[in-house]
Amino acid sequence: MMGMSLQSVFAPAAVLYQAGKPLVIEEVEVRPPQAGEVRVRMKAAGVCHSDLHVMTGDLRMPEPIILGHEGAGIVEDVGPGVTTVQPGDHVIPIWRASCGRCEYCMGGKPALCDMGTAMRFTGLMPDGETRFRNAKGDSIRHYAGVSTFASLSTMPEAAVVPIPKDFPFYKAALIGCGVITGVGAAVYAAQVKPGSTVAVWGCGGIGLNIIQGARRMGARRVIAVDTLAQKEAKARQLGATDFVDSSQTDAVEAVKALTDGKGADYTFEAIGLPKPIEQAFDATRKGGTCVIAGISRGDARAAINVNQLVYAEKTLKGTLYGSARPRVDLLNLIAMHEAGDLMLDELLTRTWPLTEINEAYDALKNGELARGLIVW
After folding, report:
1. Which end of the chain lies in a sparser environment, N or C, as judged by fewer CB atoms within 10 Å?
2. From the candidates 48, 105, 203, 290, which is the catalytic residue?
3. CA separation for the pair 270, 203 (Å, rounded)
4. Which residues, 6 or more positions from 235, have their beta carbon under 8 angstroms from its beta carbon?
């Protein structure tokens, strides 16, 4: 059997041993892929707030764990029964792998598949084991089934999408989470209509892509809202028509003033905090839709005026992975970029080697990034 002949390999990784402490860069044992699994040599990985939530302890995960859920790389080994990829293929990891058979998968909502959900919360492969060990021989958990902060990572075959070999890894990594989540929120979750008005709370990696997704759908006015004034230039570059500095003014009143006092047809929250969620809902016009895309603390609660759901017929909904079908839509996004319909280079602020990953997250916390990447 192919899987029996493969060996463990040692490779550098960034390991979280304790929330609130820096990531530890060390050599880890990466065990070979088992049946239905692949081992991927990472080439780029995204510096994303979702991982930061685990690092700070806002989202609890079993430790130790190798974080990273956004990336791109090359298939190095495949286990028995793998048919969709082979060694040498370039791939984007999917951070919510799906079985392809359950009611969620068959209903066009693969990000809600129980297979991916279980891997996200347990940090284990579908067989209940891990494929990482440290020098002491202790098991290290996986994050979102893919752990892209490992130079070499074993993951399910269902967690990789093959992409054209001439598509740059850094662009592929950007598409893998931030772009598909943000653009998808506008295109699939909200289904923004041409000529409509949109307001987006948060101009980080997700929010900027909601902005460009809304403009691509034909929104006539896209209002970017952020507490950091330096976010305005990038927001406008990605398609915002207006910018509200919510540290200086009442964001709800500002959005209403820009929409003839009515509020926006579609509002989005891409931060994951109760106050901007409440503001986005309050700034939604009668009959409008408020979409929550930001990841919050596990115990976060937001106060919503329930009467507005009834008397104003507002819709409040969430979106995971942009409500997209990653196996199809990642390739669609590549085609859109190559056709000139999707900005990618404009999103990338800077890159770091794996050894400087803690510095990369300091930059993210300080609001310095549209998107940052770890590159090998």
Report:
1. N
2. 48
3. 8
4. 203, 207, 208, 211, 224, 226, 243
Structure confidence by residue, pLDDT tens digits, 239-291: 999 999 999 999 999 999 999 999 999 999 999 999 999 999 999 999 999 99
What digits encode the pLDDT tens for the residues 187-221? Answer: 999 999 999 999 999 999 999 999 999 999 999 99
Show the domains of the chain with their CATH numbers: 2-163+343-375 (3.90.180.10), 181-320 (3.40.50.720)
Q: Give tens-digit pLDDT for 318-367.
A: 999 999 999 999 999 999 999 999 999 999 999 999 999 999 999 999 88
Catalytic site includes residue 49: no
Catalytic residue among 105, 113, 177, 290: 177
Q: Which of 5, 8, 49, 69 is catalytic?
A: 69
The stretch 20-25 carries a mean pLDDT of: 96
69 is catalytic: yes
Task: Find where tokens 């003014």 sit.
Answer: 249
CA dist 215 → 48, 107, 192, 200, 222 (Å): 23, 28, 9, 12, 7
- The CB density around residue 341, as the number of other CB atoms within 10 Å, is 11
Residues of the chain with pLDDT > 90, as a percent, come to 93
Residue 177 among the catalytic residues: yes
Measured CA to CA, the distance from residue 81 to residue 232 in angstroms comes to 50
Look up residue 337 and give its two tokens.
């970029």
pLDDT at 5: 62
Write down the residue that tokens 């530890």 correspond to: 24
290 is known as an active-site residue = no
Integer Cα distance of 56 and 307 in angstroms: 35
